[in-house]
Amino acid sequence: MLNFATPVSPCPSLLDSSLLFPVSLRVIDRKIKAHLPTKAHSQVSIMNMSESVQVTNNLTNPEASSQRTLYPYVTGTSVVAIKYKDGILMAADMGGSYGSTLRYKSVERMKSVGKHSVLGASGEISDFQEILRYLDELILHDNMWDDGNSLGPKEVHNYLTRLMYNRRNKFNPLWNSLVLGGVKNGQKYLGSVSMIGVHFEDNHVATGFGNHLARPILRDEWKEDLSFEEGVKLLEKCMRVLLYRDRSAVNKLQIAKLTEEGMTISQPYSLKTFWGYGAFQNPTVGAEGSW
Amino acid sequence: MVKEQANWSPYDNNGGTVVAIAGADYCVIASDTRMSTGYSILTRDYSKICKLADKSVMASSGFQADVRALQKVLAARHLTYQHQHNKQMSCPAMAQLLSNTLYYKRFFPYYAFNVLGGLDNEGKGCVYTYDAVGSYERVGYSSQGSGATLITPFLDNQLKSPSPLLLPAKDAVTPLSETEAIDLVKTCFASATERDIYTGDRLEVVILNANGLRREYMELRKD
């Protein structure tokens, strides 16, 4: 007898309209973001469909307060990335969760940026798509100079930091944790930006649960000049642990490789898992009553 | 209509401790290089020290995004000053600028706890200490950040600071030599690392004197 539990979604009153919307429409239809969870209100403004600048001042206009991001809706979980001998390796699964429902199972959360960088994001997927649009414009203007120079990963990381920080200053954050990696002129670069603008660069970075589960593994096993095979094995080890322990992780991931030659992103694949560990079979054998 | 509450905070504390000590003809500015959030370490290798001018070095702990933005604002203002006055800003001038910049955002503060070190117009070491909204004071030594409560009493004991109530005002600049001051700073951080979870990994020391600027590093406990 199948028991269907009601999926716990972040905003119960949206279940009727927005669940049927594909992700792309939700991105355009910002009316949903303006929806208050409690009552229908007459002040929902129909947002201009064209790519115009948000004119309403979010801080002084009281009716505009409902147009700030309050919570994320469709989210991606951890991104893990490392430097290796030839460049950067980054891994992210392809899940887009709507609260506790696994709504989308083919979300590409890593995209190349210009010639030298790759961006991975966790958090709100629509905000990630917005960031990609900003970056498109940035790269376009860079190309239009036609001066032989191109934005490297350091520059893109700085741009993203300023972008996230400025949105945080307006109390309307882009709800993402970003990982930006790249190689330019032999120099490898790997940086991270959080949704409030906290940023740093390191030899290995991770977002979300990855910070708690993957970073310790990387601190122990990462070393300078890993080969491609060693790097992939290390990333897969991290992703496997995340798969076992992060409830929003899905077993369908991609690995992006970025070298001086450019970016290649693998076809989606699954990790082999083993659930027969004694500890999994009887998890509370050492401490009855715990979970 | 119930007012919506934000369920995120625009601030975070990324931890760390900063210390500065002024000497007769030098200034020592030091910070650890750990950057944390909550109970996690983000990176063990992040510098909190920023050279603002030839004779002014700022070290800040607190919310890293605000610290970085503050460093950029001051660097930009210093560049403008150089264009307009054809000279570097003096440390006392930079001290006033930092105070004004912080107070400018009095009602949405930079969550940055700063210590400005350098050489004054006479070449003597000077240290200025700040709170998050710009109130500042010139002192002989100071420490800010998560380990400050552990370090300040120790510095008070070791540097025998004269009472600020004395008249005529006694100079708070320490008679210690440069190497002794660096050694003292290393001791401070080794001790703070033992008891403060947000301090550790590595110590970065910047020494400013008549010969210019140099850096020293020391490993700290990583737990």
Quick structural gist:
With about 290 residues, chain A is an alpha+beta fold. Chain A is about 30% helix and about 25% strand.
Structure description:
The complex is a heterodimer of chains A (291) and B (223). By secondary structure, chain A is α+β, with helices and mostly antiparallel strands. Helices cover 30% and strands 23% of the residues of chain A. Chain A contains eight helices and 13 strands. Chain A has helices at residues 15-18, 23-28, 31-34, 125-144, 153-169, 209-221, 228-245, 278-281, and strands spanning 74-76, 79-84, 87-93, 96-98, 101-104, 110-113, 117-124, 176-184, 187-193, 199-201, 204-206, 253-259, 262-265. In chain A, strands 1, 4, 5, 6, 7, 8, 9 and 10 form an eight-stranded antiparallel beta sheet that branches. In chain A, a hairpin with a 2-residue loop joins strand 12 (253-259) and strand 13. Chain A is globular. Chain A starts with 14 loop residues before the first helix and ends in a 10-residue tail after the last helix. The model of chain A is unreliable at 1-53 (pLDDT under 50). With 223 residues, chain B is an alpha+beta fold. Chain B has one domain (17-220): 4-Layer Sandwich (Glutamine Phosphoribosylpyrophosphate, subunit 1, domain 1), CATH 3.60.20. Chain B is 30% helix and 32% strand. Chain B has four helices and twelve strands; from the N terminus they run ββββββααββββααββ. In chain B, the strands form three sheets. Chain B has a five-stranded antiparallel beta sheet with strand order 10-1-2-11-12, with helices on one face. A five-stranded antiparallel beta sheet of chain B has the order 5-6-7-8-9, with helices on one face. Chain B has a two-stranded antiparallel sheet with strand order 3-4. Chain B is globular, with a radius of gyration of 17 Å. Chain B starts with 16 loop residues before the first strand and ends with a strand. The mean pLDDT of chain B is 94. Chain B: Keywords: Cytoplasm, Nucleus, Proteasome. Chain B: Component of the proteasome complex. Chain B: It is found in: Cytoplasm; Nucleus. Chain B: It comes from Daucus carota subsp. sativus (Carrot). Chain B: One of its GO terms (biological process) is proteolysis involved in protein catabolic process.
